[in-house]
Protein 1
Amino acid sequence: MTTFDLPDLGEGLTEATLLSWLVDEGDMIEVDQPIAEVETAKSSIEVPSPYAGIVVRLHGAVGETLIVDEPLITVDTDGGGGFDDAAGPSAAAGSSAGALSYREEERAGTAVPADGGGEETLQDTGDEGSGNVLIGYGTSASAGARRRRRRAGGPNQPPTGPRAGSALAVAERPAQKAPRVSSPLVRRLAREHSVPLTGLTGTGPDGLIVRADVLAAVESRGAAPAQDQQTAQAPASTGPVSASPSLPAPGGLEIRERVPVTGIRKAVATTLSRSRREIPEATVWQDVDATELLALRARLKRQAEAEGSSAPSLLALIGRFVLAGLSRHPELATRVDTREDGEQEIVHFDGVNLGFAAQTDTGLVVPVVLHAERLSARELHGEIGRLVGAARDGSISGKELTGGTFTVNNYGVFGSDGATPIINHPEVAILGIGRILDRPWAVDGELTVRSITTLTLAFDHRVCDGGTAGGFLNFVARCVEDPTTALADL
């Protein structure tokens, strides 16, 4: 047997929450077949198996936190089913003669009866991997993998009915494959409505199960609505823990439920708590007249509609102003590194990876545009749209959520006039954009109505002083107030 550990999930990720098992103990699995869906601090992903064989043991329950490099699944790759001690000599002999390897079975689609008992069994002819990659891990050769044998009836074993889990039991039924689903969010929707994916026929390309298939199944049986979003984010097996009616609470209130802090919510809490703990943060802000920027955006939009293209969004235009400001004040796109001797140094980078805070159904994430300084406003608009869309449908990769050196947070879309954003550790600065409101404003000594927004910059006082921060913020503000002149210099 071979035990497969939870693989490396990307830079800095050491744990994941188990959302669902896609296989059961006793199932026959193939190389690269998805075996589990896990939620990391970055996104939900499916973990493929690097081995083919019979599932002997699933390590962990749904809702449990799994640690990288600890056991995930145990697979019997030689067809013994993990019960060779109980099966007797004839079964052991049958597993060593006349059987096809899983590679041969994949090609032929059959199993050959073994000599001696007429039983169908499987054996592994090698530890060949697929080469496919899951965020930093490849299903390469498993020469160094751990192997162990367990006696039937021992702890944590599958049910031990007649020939339970054996190769014969597997051969007597079709090999099970996890249903093909368009995204983890579709799996979550099915889980919330208790819709078994194995019973659905996908209407997507090549039979792919899509959101509409799950909703149609829910409607056809009159399923109850999905649970409250906050409750839905709690792992299904643990669920909210209802308190006893007699349990005292502050102010005489009763505890209604307890929701575990896991996955993305846990990652956000960890990052922001570390930011507050380690960074000596300071904040500067400025009210800015965005009337001319709105006028420019309207002209670009009319022109794009006439050409059948798309115009840069306000966020993309301000993003270009931010990148220009960072070229003049590069201290704000650095990181503070602590060496082994305890001394700190400011690390400068060649370019800017620009992050944009985005709200999704599973929490706040920050997709990152790599080398954003190389993109025009229109190209930046396209990349922001792609990344935010991928984040909201659950298809974004871990690589696209890491490596930022400066973040822009447009909390104005939520109706906030202003805020004091928390720096996205290990970055050293973040720019917040409030909503744009019509307000009285003095122009050339006369009072008039203008479109005003508030820009707020939070920065790490270790990397620069108020002069640098104020200079950067003032530059971005001038670009917003006079974008035509600013764009001529960008």
Note: The chain has three domains: 1-178, 186-232, 279-488.
Protein 2
Amino acid sequence: MTADAGERLVDGYTLVVFDLDGVIYLIDQPIPGAVEAVGRLHADGKAVAYATNNASRRSSEVAYLLTGMGVPARADEVLTSAAATAELLRDRLPAGAPVLVVGAEALRAEIRAVGLRPVSLADDEPAAVAQGYGPQVGWVDLAEASLAVRAGAPWYATNTDRTLPSERGPLPGNGSLVAVLRTALGREPDVVVGKPEPALFATAARRAGGGQTLVVGDRLDTDIEGASRAGLDSLLVLTGVSDVPELLAAPETRRPTYVAMDLAGLFDPAAVVRLPGVPDGGGWSVTVTDGGLALDGAGPPLDALAALCAVAWAASTGPAVRAESPEAGKALAALGLSA
């Protein structure tokens, strides 16, 4: 059910941690409403942080990018998987140790900043391999990493996101590049640093001190699962990768606390619902059919989604939904589901 009038979701939290791609921006353009949402949080005195699996930019570069979009941000508010990977390697390797880097210059810069030496060849006998997303990563880079791992170097992946969002649709992410090495080596990375591992969110919560933390993300498999592992509440916004069919089929570890169409859900009680809701909530009723779920009744589409999640998660049904009334058909269309 949607919140009661006057009960803003954000009022229950002292820190809001945002994912970036698909939540605040797509590539280098702000998502509609994102600038205004962050501005309202600052005006309300809420602490804000940003946690991103994208390892192609340094924290200072991300802060500069955000500020240029109209979202004032400091480097210490930005947590990247590149920086977290470098800090982890610093703690495990001797100073000056060579690290074979596969990825963007930002990852090399983070490795260098913690006192380690980025290299590109397996012949340099690297003490570890650090793999992150980079648009210029090619076969030669992956081949050198494969040779180094086979020679005994531990393999660190900044993240395993299968895709990253763009205005043209999902594009291959670092997880797709990791899959190349996984296929060649016949094994998994030794360490995955970014989401859904809880380190980025836990670090943000520690930096903010006491109080409740809300994680806002667009991906069930990284943002929402990472928040769950960190023991934090989460809000899924439907402006990026994960959609309603994926939400209905989500396993328990990937189920958000709340869902909203966009960041307006932080402030408007009618624009957000708590999940899973109840099967007959908000004027809607949901039943299990042979082909999936049947939605009947009338009411706000988000209330319909909460009711659908309640039944789908309890019955472990597929995401197929059939409309039993014209109003249900309209609600399903609003949620991106075929009636």
Note: Residues 9-53+196-272 form a domain with the Rossmann fold fold (CATH 3.40.50.1000).
Protein 3
Amino acid sequence: MAGSCCAPSRGGDSAAIASLAPETGIQDDIQAGAGAGVHLRDCVAIPGGTALLGTNRPEIPADFEAPQIKRRVKDFWCERGATSVAQFRRFVQATGYVTLAERLGWSFVFHTHVPEENADALGVMGLEWWRRIDGATWDRPQGPHGAPARDEMPVTHIAWEDARQFAAWAGGRLPREVEWEHAARGGLGDVIYPWGDQDPNDQDFTPCNIWQGDFPMTDLALDGYHGTAPVHSFAPNGYGLHNMSGNVWEWTAEPFRVRSASSAGRQINQASVGKKLLKGGSFLCHKSYCYRYRIAARTGNTPDSTSAHTGFRVVYDKAPDPAPSTASGCCCK
């Protein structure tokens, strides 16, 4: 087991990758759009046009955040928050889906959230603050000795294929990187964060759920949360989207690769074959450790990796049904 500075990795083990396919018997229920009448959308319209991707003010050169380029995107619709536990539970109840973490029997939990009964759990070499916890899953994020997952929280311990299957069932998909950044900017243009350019700090400005204090031992939780926050917490950006910075890493549709033909870029892409791209950072990010809660920041991980700070958000190519109403459970605007 290894990982980047941001997330632990199962390492792309061949046995784990082979387990990514949905179990026989429920494939018909997970076909594209099968849950469109069951999943309760809570989304907003994102206007298309010229979108910015990357930055000319890079902070982590090794991630090739620069240069900033322009791309055209079409109109799309994006969930206001990351997929919640309640939304994912509806998917599981409708299809019988079993996540990869459940099939493999374990997932990664941050050390300060590990129940006392698991105090001797195996750590990750080089990332000792992560622990392998048997039985940690989307509905028991700390393992069987921890509390059940709360409905309003982002669903975590989600592998890339789990996220893709939910999105297809819901009639949507995972976003492309340019779509994710376009949505995160909220109409503000070339900004560092969804709210603008002001940096969060450890004193009096906490607009998102990240780490405050001395990582990895002391989390002051000045933003109100020691772990994940509800999917609709903190002020939304200009498009009405919550937690595009911090809270949980979000899987995207794309492989992790850098936009560079340099020798270093080619080496990174060769070493990253098979990895998928994640955006947004998490509640464990801090400027001194993992300054990846900026819009242009990015990381990659093997698609079989699951952890307590990794989830996803769904986008849609089609508008919701005409005249949606909150009574029907659809809140798209």
Note: The chain has one domain: 2-23+32-328.
